[in-house]
Design brief:
The chain has 2 helices and 18 strands. With 318 residues, the chain is of the alpha+beta class. It has 4 domains: 9-103, no CATH class; 109-188, no CATH class; 193-256, Antifreeze-like/N-acetylneuraminic acid synthase C-terminal domain (Type Iii Antifreeze Protein Isoform Hplc 12); 259-317, SH3 type barrels, CATH 2.30.30.760. It starts with 8 loop residues before the first strand and ends with a strand.
Length: 318
């Protein structure tokens, strides 16, 4: 009798897959049916309900039981091997797609943060130099290497409230379009080099500064918060507030005006208005320090406030 191959083999109408299940059978040929060896009906999967006589299974003997047991174990091993190979092939086919997705997703977000920060800083400092003509340099810090940022399609640098591009500060970068929103902050140092006066030799506190005490050079204005003294007239004749070290740039908080008269002293008051200037005598109501304001009572009893010009003069704008 010719045997047809249908892709399914079963016994007594029960069908199973061509390859055995990958679970190892607990019992093999322990119970052999009494009708074993008689013709068995197999269902054609393409014609359900119309059984067709396909094969006659011979009655097993002891050697057949052993052979079938060995074959079951072999098929079990092959099945497991095929499953593992299938998983490996599936993974290998998926990997190129995953890699391509990562490449298309863009570069490392941390590297993009630095790139956006540099570009933004260059533009911001270029605008700042138009109002303050100084030579600027920027030292850009790094993000924490343990930080893991989600991919971002659009980043936006910004200055935190109360911050400015001056000295040691920080720059924020936020993700405004991406799988998740995040903010990070970069430490930066902005250096602004410009003309200044630097102390030639150590100056003791309380010393009245002379023109020979400092020399003109270029310094980093942003290295301290107090403003730099640019004009020589702003420090010559003033008193050192503290010890001034050699090479230290002069700043406004380092000097104070020298007191040139006391309260009650007679002073000359020069009043200047629109197209005229008059001078009169008055009495100082407060101590006079060059460059600072002081009050004075005129002979007619009127009280004015002006700026101390020298040890005998107060200038008043009308």
């Amino acid at each position: 009798m010719e045997v047809q191959s249908t892709g399914q083999i079963g016994k007594h109408g029960d069908t199973s897959t061509f390859f055995p299940r990958c679970s190892l059978p607990q019992r093999v040929w322990n119970d052999v049916p009494t009708d074993y060896g008689k013709p068995v009906l197999f269902l054609n999967p393409n014609k359900r309900g119309n059984p067709v006589l396909l094969a006659v299974v011979p009655k097993p003997d002891s050697s057949l039981k052993s052979t079938l047991t060995t074959e079951s174990v072999v098929l079990q091993s092959l099945c497991l091997l095929f499953k593992r190979l299938f998983k490996l092939i599936s993974i290998s086919l998926l990997l190129p797609g995953v890699w391509a997705q990562q490449v298309q997703g863009g570069a490392d977000p941390s590297a993009e943060v630095l790139a956006h920060a540099r570009q933004w800083l260059n533009q911001a400092l270029a605008q700042q130099s138009q109002t303050l003509p100084l030579r600027t340099e920027v030292v850009l810090g790094r993000l924490d290497p343990r930080l893991r940022l989600a991919p971002c399609q659009h980043m936006e640098p910004f200055l935190p409230p109360g911050s400015r591009l001056w000295g040691a500060t920080r720059l924020g970068v936020r993700c405004v379009q991406g799988s998740s929103r995040w903010n990070v902050f970069l430490p930066i140092t902005v250096k602004a080099f410009g003309p200044a006066w630097v102390i030639k030799g150590q100056v003791a506190p309380g010393t009245v500064l002379q023109a020979s005490d400092a020399i003109a050079t270029e310094v980093d204005w942003a290295s301290a918060t107090s403003p730099i003294i640019v004009n020589q007239s702003e420090w010559v004749g003033k008193t050192a507030n503290r010890l001034l070290a050699t090479g230290q740039p002069l700043r406004q908080d380092m000097v104070r005006g020298t007191q040139v008269f006391q309260a009650g002293s007679q002073v000359r008051v020069v009043a200047r208005g629109n197209g005229f200037e008059i001078a009169a005598r008055g009495q100082a109501l407060s101590a006079g320090v060059v460059g600072q304001s002081a009050r004075v009572r005129m002979d007619n009893g009127q009280i004015l406030q002006g700026q101390v010009a020298d040890g005998q003069t107060i200038r008043v704008l009308l």
